[in-house]
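Folding follows sequence. Below is one example:
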Amino acid sequence: MGSDRAIPRAGRAARACRIPRAPAPPAPGSDRALPAAPDGDGVFVAVNRSSGTSVVRSDPAAVLRERLPRAELHLLEPGEDPAAVVADALARPEPPRIVGICGGDGSVAAVAHVARAAGVPLLVVPGGTFNHFARTAGVASVDDAVDALQAGQGVRADVAELAFGEAAPITVVNAASVGVYPDVIALRERVRPKLGKWLAGVFAAERVLRRSDPVAVVVGGRRAEVWALFVGVGRNDRGIHAPLQRRELDDGVLDVRVLHRGSRTGAIAALAFGQRAAAVLRRLRLVPERVEAFTTTQLTVDVRPRNGRPPGVVHDGEIALEAPAAASADLSAPGFRMRIRVVPAALDVYRPAARPPVAAGAAEPAPAGSPSS
Protein backbone atom coordinates (compact mmCIF):
# COMPACT_ATOMS: atom_id res chain seq x y z
CA MET A 1 0.00 0.00 0.00
CA GLY A 2 1.23 3.53 -0.78
CA SER A 3 3.72 2.38 -3.49
CA ASP A 4 3.56 2.84 -7.26
CA ARG A 5 3.31 -0.95 -7.78
CA ALA A 6 -0.48 -0.88 -7.71
CA ILE A 7 -0.67 1.92 -10.26
CA PRO A 8 -1.15 0.81 -13.90
CA ARG A 9 1.65 1.70 -16.28
CA ALA A 10 -0.43 4.38 -17.96
CA GLY A 11 -1.23 5.88 -14.58
CA ARG A 12 2.48 5.98 -13.61
CA ALA A 13 3.34 7.71 -16.87
CA ALA A 14 0.57 10.23 -16.45
CA ARG A 15 1.69 11.06 -12.92
CA ALA A 16 5.33 11.36 -14.00
CA CYS A 17 4.36 13.79 -16.76
CA ARG A 18 2.01 15.87 -14.63
CA ILE A 19 2.93 19.55 -14.80
CA PRO A 20 2.88 21.29 -11.41
CA ARG A 21 0.12 23.87 -11.15
CA ALA A 22 1.41 27.42 -11.15
CA PRO A 23 0.82 29.30 -7.90
CA ALA A 24 -2.23 31.55 -7.89
CA PRO A 25 -1.45 35.21 -8.55
CA PRO A 26 -1.59 37.53 -5.54
CA ALA A 27 -5.07 38.75 -4.68
CA PRO A 28 -5.70 42.31 -5.87
CA GLY A 29 -5.69 45.34 -3.60
CA SER A 30 -3.10 46.71 -1.20
CA ASP A 31 -2.55 44.80 2.04
CA ARG A 32 -3.89 46.65 5.07
CA ALA A 33 -3.47 46.08 8.81
CA LEU A 34 -6.78 45.56 10.61
CA PRO A 35 -7.63 44.84 14.27
CA ALA A 36 -6.58 41.30 15.17
CA ALA A 37 -8.76 38.91 17.17
CA PRO A 38 -6.76 35.73 17.87
CA ASP A 39 -9.51 34.08 19.93
CA GLY A 40 -12.51 35.89 18.42
CA ASP A 41 -13.02 38.33 21.29
CA GLY A 42 -15.28 41.18 20.13
CA VAL A 43 -16.33 39.38 16.96
CA PHE A 44 -19.95 38.76 15.94
CA VAL A 45 -20.61 36.43 13.00
CA ALA A 46 -23.96 35.70 11.36
CA VAL A 47 -23.95 32.23 9.81
CA ASN A 48 -26.37 31.65 6.96
CA ARG A 49 -27.01 27.93 7.16
CA SER A 50 -29.29 27.95 4.10
CA SER A 51 -26.62 29.34 1.74
CA GLY A 52 -24.99 26.96 -0.66
CA THR A 53 -26.63 23.77 0.50
CA SER A 54 -25.50 22.12 -2.74
CA VAL A 55 -21.84 22.90 -2.10
CA VAL A 56 -19.81 20.19 -0.39
CA ARG A 57 -17.66 21.71 2.36
CA SER A 58 -16.87 21.21 6.03
CA ASP A 59 -19.24 22.84 8.48
CA PRO A 60 -17.98 26.44 8.75
CA ALA A 61 -19.71 26.99 12.09
CA ALA A 62 -17.75 24.11 13.63
CA VAL A 63 -14.46 25.54 12.36
CA LEU A 64 -15.34 28.99 13.67
CA ARG A 65 -16.25 27.62 17.11
CA GLU A 66 -13.02 25.68 17.35
CA ARG A 67 -10.65 28.40 16.17
CA LEU A 68 -12.49 31.44 17.58
CA PRO A 69 -13.84 30.23 20.94
CA ARG A 70 -14.74 33.74 22.16
CA ALA A 71 -16.56 34.85 19.00
CA GLU A 72 -20.34 35.14 19.11
CA LEU A 73 -21.98 33.06 16.37
CA HIS A 74 -25.57 33.66 15.38
CA LEU A 75 -27.02 30.80 13.32
CA LEU A 76 -29.64 32.39 11.09
CA GLU A 77 -33.08 30.85 11.04
CA PRO A 78 -34.87 30.39 7.68
CA GLY A 79 -36.08 33.78 6.50
CA GLU A 80 -34.02 35.72 9.04
CA ASP A 81 -32.31 38.79 7.59
CA PRO A 82 -28.53 38.71 8.21
CA ALA A 83 -28.25 42.51 7.86
CA ALA A 84 -30.94 43.07 10.51
CA VAL A 85 -29.28 40.60 12.88
CA VAL A 86 -25.90 42.30 12.54
CA ALA A 87 -27.48 45.75 12.89
CA ASP A 88 -29.14 44.65 16.15
CA ALA A 89 -25.80 43.44 17.48
CA LEU A 90 -24.16 46.76 16.60
CA ALA A 91 -26.93 48.65 18.40
CA ARG A 92 -26.09 47.05 21.76
CA PRO A 93 -24.58 49.18 24.56
CA GLU A 94 -21.35 47.24 24.01
CA PRO A 95 -21.33 46.47 20.29
CA PRO A 96 -18.89 44.08 18.59
CA ARG A 97 -15.78 45.67 17.14
CA ILE A 98 -15.74 43.28 14.17
CA VAL A 99 -18.70 41.79 12.31
CA GLY A 100 -18.73 38.79 10.02
CA ILE A 101 -20.97 36.90 7.66
CA CYS A 102 -20.76 33.28 6.59
CA GLY A 103 -22.77 33.00 3.41
CA GLY A 104 -22.89 33.79 -0.29
CA ASP A 105 -22.53 37.05 -2.16
CA GLY A 106 -26.03 38.29 -1.40
CA SER A 107 -25.53 37.87 2.35
CA VAL A 108 -22.07 39.45 2.13
CA ALA A 109 -23.42 42.53 0.36
CA ALA A 110 -26.24 42.97 2.87
CA VAL A 111 -23.92 42.77 5.89
CA ALA A 112 -21.29 44.90 4.14
CA HIS A 113 -23.89 47.68 3.97
CA VAL A 114 -24.35 47.54 7.76
CA ALA A 115 -20.60 47.29 8.43
CA ARG A 116 -19.97 50.37 6.29
CA ALA A 117 -22.58 52.38 8.17
CA ALA A 118 -21.04 51.40 11.53
CA GLY A 119 -17.44 51.88 10.40
CA VAL A 120 -16.33 48.39 11.45
CA PRO A 121 -14.27 45.85 9.48
CA LEU A 122 -15.95 42.86 7.87
CA LEU A 123 -15.01 39.20 8.16
CA VAL A 124 -16.18 37.32 5.06
CA VAL A 125 -16.45 33.54 5.44
CA PRO A 126 -17.29 31.80 2.15
CA GLY A 127 -20.36 29.67 2.76
CA GLY A 128 -22.70 30.13 -0.21
CA THR A 129 -23.22 28.64 -3.64
CA PHE A 130 -21.47 31.67 -5.13
CA ASN A 131 -18.59 33.30 -3.25
CA HIS A 132 -17.31 35.59 -5.99
CA PHE A 133 -16.34 38.47 -3.72
CA ALA A 134 -14.54 36.24 -1.23
CA ARG A 135 -12.56 34.55 -4.00
CA THR A 136 -11.52 37.89 -5.51
CA ALA A 137 -10.35 39.11 -2.11
CA GLY A 138 -8.28 35.95 -1.62
CA VAL A 139 -10.50 34.17 0.92
CA ALA A 140 -11.01 30.68 -0.46
CA SER A 141 -12.02 28.92 2.77
CA VAL A 142 -13.15 29.43 6.34
CA ASP A 143 -9.56 28.84 7.47
CA ASP A 144 -8.31 31.62 5.18
CA ALA A 145 -10.80 33.99 6.81
CA VAL A 146 -9.83 32.96 10.35
CA ASP A 147 -6.10 33.14 9.57
CA ALA A 148 -6.52 36.73 8.38
CA LEU A 149 -8.63 37.70 11.41
CA GLN A 150 -6.14 36.24 13.87
CA ALA A 151 -3.22 37.96 12.14
CA GLY A 152 -5.02 41.28 11.58
CA GLN A 153 -4.54 41.17 7.81
CA GLY A 154 -6.94 42.69 5.31
CA VAL A 155 -7.64 44.96 2.37
CA ARG A 156 -9.72 48.05 1.70
CA ALA A 157 -12.17 47.47 -1.13
CA ASP A 158 -14.39 49.59 -3.33
CA VAL A 159 -18.12 48.91 -3.40
CA ALA A 160 -21.01 50.37 -5.36
CA GLU A 161 -24.26 51.95 -4.24
CA LEU A 162 -27.40 51.03 -6.16
CA ALA A 163 -30.63 53.01 -5.84
CA PHE A 164 -34.05 52.60 -7.45
CA GLY A 165 -35.89 55.86 -7.96
CA GLU A 166 -35.66 58.00 -4.84
CA ALA A 167 -35.16 55.07 -2.45
CA ALA A 168 -32.10 54.81 -0.23
CA PRO A 169 -29.16 53.04 -1.90
CA ILE A 170 -28.06 49.51 -1.16
CA THR A 171 -24.50 48.17 -1.24
CA VAL A 172 -23.25 46.05 -4.14
CA VAL A 173 -19.94 44.17 -3.87
CA ASN A 174 -19.79 42.41 -7.26
CA ALA A 175 -22.27 43.34 -9.96
CA ALA A 176 -25.80 44.40 -10.83
CA SER A 177 -27.76 43.58 -13.96
CA VAL A 178 -31.05 44.50 -15.61
CA GLY A 179 -32.71 42.77 -18.55
CA VAL A 180 -33.52 39.11 -19.06
CA TYR A 181 -30.73 37.91 -16.76
CA PRO A 182 -32.93 37.95 -13.62
CA ASP A 183 -35.28 35.55 -15.41
CA VAL A 184 -32.34 33.33 -16.36
CA ILE A 185 -31.12 33.26 -12.75
CA ALA A 186 -34.57 32.43 -11.36
CA LEU A 187 -35.09 29.51 -13.75
CA ARG A 188 -31.51 28.27 -13.41
CA GLU A 189 -31.82 28.00 -9.64
CA ARG A 190 -35.10 26.08 -9.95
CA VAL A 191 -33.62 23.42 -12.23
CA ARG A 192 -30.09 23.42 -10.80
CA PRO A 193 -30.67 20.54 -8.32
CA LYS A 194 -31.69 18.24 -11.20
CA LEU A 195 -29.40 19.43 -14.00
CA GLY A 196 -26.30 20.75 -12.26
CA LYS A 197 -24.80 24.23 -12.57
CA TRP A 198 -23.49 24.16 -16.15
CA LEU A 199 -26.42 22.44 -17.83
CA ALA A 200 -28.94 24.42 -15.78
CA GLY A 201 -27.39 27.65 -17.07
CA VAL A 202 -27.66 26.52 -20.68
CA PHE A 203 -31.24 25.34 -20.23
CA ALA A 204 -32.35 28.51 -18.45
CA ALA A 205 -30.72 30.90 -20.95
CA GLU A 206 -32.18 29.03 -23.94
CA ARG A 207 -35.66 28.80 -22.43
CA VAL A 208 -35.82 32.45 -21.32
CA LEU A 209 -34.39 33.95 -24.50
CA ARG A 210 -36.63 31.82 -26.70
CA ARG A 211 -39.70 33.24 -24.95
CA SER A 212 -38.56 36.76 -24.02
CA ASP A 213 -38.23 40.10 -25.74
CA PRO A 214 -35.35 42.54 -25.22
CA VAL A 215 -35.66 45.30 -22.65
CA ALA A 216 -35.70 48.97 -23.65
CA VAL A 217 -33.29 51.15 -21.67
CA VAL A 218 -32.07 54.73 -21.83
CA VAL A 219 -28.39 55.19 -20.91
CA GLY A 220 -26.79 58.61 -21.19
CA GLY A 221 -29.70 59.88 -23.25
CA ARG A 222 -29.39 56.99 -25.72
CA ARG A 223 -32.23 54.53 -26.11
CA ALA A 224 -31.35 50.90 -26.81
CA GLU A 225 -32.97 47.48 -26.84
CA VAL A 226 -30.83 45.09 -24.88
CA TRP A 227 -30.87 41.52 -23.68
CA ALA A 228 -28.96 42.59 -20.59
CA LEU A 229 -26.97 45.45 -19.10
CA PHE A 230 -24.33 44.50 -16.55
CA VAL A 231 -22.53 46.84 -14.17
CA GLY A 232 -19.53 45.29 -12.43
CA VAL A 233 -17.76 46.79 -9.41
CA GLY A 234 -14.16 47.03 -10.56
CA ARG A 235 -12.79 45.77 -13.84
CA ASN A 236 -13.87 42.32 -14.96
CA ASP A 237 -12.38 39.88 -17.46
CA ARG A 238 -12.70 41.44 -20.92
CA GLY A 239 -13.64 38.12 -22.51
CA ILE A 240 -16.80 37.71 -20.40
CA HIS A 241 -20.03 39.31 -21.55
CA ALA A 242 -21.87 38.67 -18.28
CA PRO A 243 -19.33 39.89 -15.68
CA LEU A 244 -20.16 38.55 -12.23
CA GLN A 245 -16.77 38.32 -10.49
CA ARG A 246 -14.59 41.39 -10.26
CA ARG A 247 -10.86 41.25 -10.95
CA GLU A 248 -9.93 44.38 -9.02
CA LEU A 249 -10.78 45.60 -5.53
CA ASP A 250 -9.64 49.22 -5.59
CA ASP A 251 -9.48 50.59 -9.14
CA GLY A 252 -12.35 53.04 -8.53
CA VAL A 253 -14.46 52.23 -11.61
CA LEU A 254 -17.62 50.48 -12.74
CA ASP A 255 -17.22 48.04 -15.62
CA VAL A 256 -20.30 48.24 -17.86
CA ARG A 257 -21.28 45.67 -20.52
CA VAL A 258 -24.34 46.18 -22.69
CA LEU A 259 -25.57 43.10 -24.56
CA HIS A 260 -27.54 44.70 -27.39
CA ARG A 261 -30.41 43.02 -29.18
CA GLY A 262 -29.08 40.59 -31.75
CA SER A 263 -28.62 36.87 -32.21
CA ARG A 264 -30.50 34.80 -29.66
CA THR A 265 -27.87 32.06 -29.99
CA GLY A 266 -25.12 34.51 -29.16
CA ALA A 267 -27.10 35.87 -26.23
CA ILE A 268 -27.64 32.35 -24.88
CA ALA A 269 -23.90 31.73 -25.07
CA ALA A 270 -23.15 35.02 -23.31
CA LEU A 271 -25.63 34.49 -20.46
CA ALA A 272 -25.18 30.78 -19.86
CA PHE A 273 -21.43 30.41 -19.67
CA GLY A 274 -18.61 31.80 -17.59
CA GLN A 275 -14.92 32.44 -17.98
CA ARG A 276 -13.82 28.86 -18.64
CA ALA A 277 -16.01 28.49 -21.71
CA ALA A 278 -15.47 31.99 -23.11
CA ALA A 279 -12.44 31.08 -25.23
CA VAL A 280 -14.20 28.04 -26.72
CA LEU A 281 -17.31 30.07 -27.52
CA ARG A 282 -15.23 32.72 -29.26
CA ARG A 283 -13.60 30.09 -31.45
CA LEU A 284 -16.99 28.64 -32.30
CA ARG A 285 -18.24 32.18 -33.06
CA LEU A 286 -21.16 31.77 -30.70
CA VAL A 287 -20.55 34.93 -28.71
CA PRO A 288 -22.58 38.00 -29.67
CA GLU A 289 -20.95 40.73 -31.71
CA ARG A 290 -23.08 43.62 -30.39
CA VAL A 291 -21.54 44.01 -26.95
CA GLU A 292 -20.71 47.51 -25.78
CA ALA A 293 -18.15 47.86 -22.99
CA PHE A 294 -16.93 50.90 -21.09
CA THR A 295 -15.88 52.04 -17.63
CA THR A 296 -17.32 54.87 -15.59
CA THR A 297 -17.73 55.99 -12.00
CA GLN A 298 -21.51 56.38 -12.04
CA LEU A 299 -24.41 55.45 -14.27
CA THR A 300 -28.09 56.28 -14.57
CA VAL A 301 -30.33 53.87 -16.45
CA ASP A 302 -34.01 54.38 -17.24
CA VAL A 303 -35.65 51.00 -17.71
CA ARG A 304 -38.89 50.70 -19.66
CA PRO A 305 -41.58 48.12 -18.87
CA ARG A 306 -41.63 44.81 -20.70
CA ASN A 307 -45.05 43.31 -21.31
CA GLY A 308 -46.51 45.96 -19.01
CA ARG A 309 -44.26 45.09 -16.04
CA PRO A 310 -40.88 46.48 -14.95
CA PRO A 311 -38.12 43.91 -15.39
CA GLY A 312 -36.30 42.69 -12.33
CA VAL A 313 -32.75 43.53 -11.31
CA VAL A 314 -30.08 41.13 -10.07
CA HIS A 315 -27.47 42.40 -7.62
CA ASP A 316 -24.89 40.05 -6.13
CA GLY A 317 -27.01 37.05 -7.08
CA GLU A 318 -30.16 38.38 -5.41
CA ILE A 319 -33.22 39.14 -7.56
CA ALA A 320 -35.00 42.42 -6.80
CA LEU A 321 -38.57 42.73 -8.05
CA GLU A 322 -40.41 44.85 -5.49
CA ALA A 323 -37.94 47.75 -5.41
CA PRO A 324 -37.94 48.33 -9.20
CA ALA A 325 -41.73 48.05 -9.24
CA ALA A 326 -42.06 50.60 -6.43
CA ALA A 327 -39.63 52.93 -8.20
CA SER A 328 -41.79 52.91 -11.32
CA ALA A 329 -44.02 55.51 -9.68
CA ASP A 330 -41.06 57.90 -9.32
CA LEU A 331 -40.54 58.33 -13.07
CA SER A 332 -42.85 60.39 -15.22
CA ALA A 333 -42.45 58.00 -18.14
CA PRO A 334 -43.36 54.30 -17.73
CA GLY A 335 -40.63 52.26 -16.10
CA PHE A 336 -38.10 53.02 -13.36
CA ARG A 337 -34.77 54.76 -12.89
CA MET A 338 -31.73 52.90 -11.60
CA ARG A 339 -28.67 54.77 -10.34
CA ILE A 340 -25.37 53.14 -9.48
CA ARG A 341 -22.07 54.73 -8.45
CA VAL A 342 -18.74 53.42 -7.25
CA VAL A 343 -17.63 54.24 -3.69
CA PRO A 344 -13.83 53.95 -3.49
CA ALA A 345 -12.12 52.52 -0.40
CA ALA A 346 -15.46 51.95 1.30
CA LEU A 347 -15.02 48.64 3.11
CA ASP A 348 -12.29 47.03 5.24
CA VAL A 349 -12.28 43.26 4.67
CA TYR A 350 -10.16 40.56 6.31
CA ARG A 351 -8.05 38.48 3.96
CA PRO A 352 -4.62 36.81 4.17
CA ALA A 353 -1.82 39.16 3.15
CA ALA A 354 -1.32 38.95 -0.60
CA ARG A 355 2.40 39.59 -0.16
CA PRO A 356 4.51 38.30 2.72
CA PRO A 357 5.34 40.96 5.30
CA VAL A 358 8.89 42.28 5.36
CA ALA A 359 10.76 41.29 8.53
CA ALA A 360 11.90 44.10 10.82
CA GLY A 361 15.29 45.41 9.71
CA ALA A 362 15.16 43.60 6.38
CA ALA A 363 15.29 45.51 3.14
CA GLU A 364 12.29 45.29 0.88
CA PRO A 365 12.96 43.43 -2.39
CA ALA A 366 13.84 45.67 -5.29
CA PRO A 367 11.25 46.04 -8.04
CA ALA A 368 11.65 43.70 -10.99
CA GLY A 369 14.06 45.08 -13.53
CA SER A 370 15.81 47.49 -11.15
CA PRO A 371 19.61 47.50 -11.08
CA SER A 372 21.21 45.49 -8.28
CA SER A 373 23.45 47.19 -5.75
In short: The first helix runs from residue 9 to 16. The first strand starts at residue 31 and ends at 33.
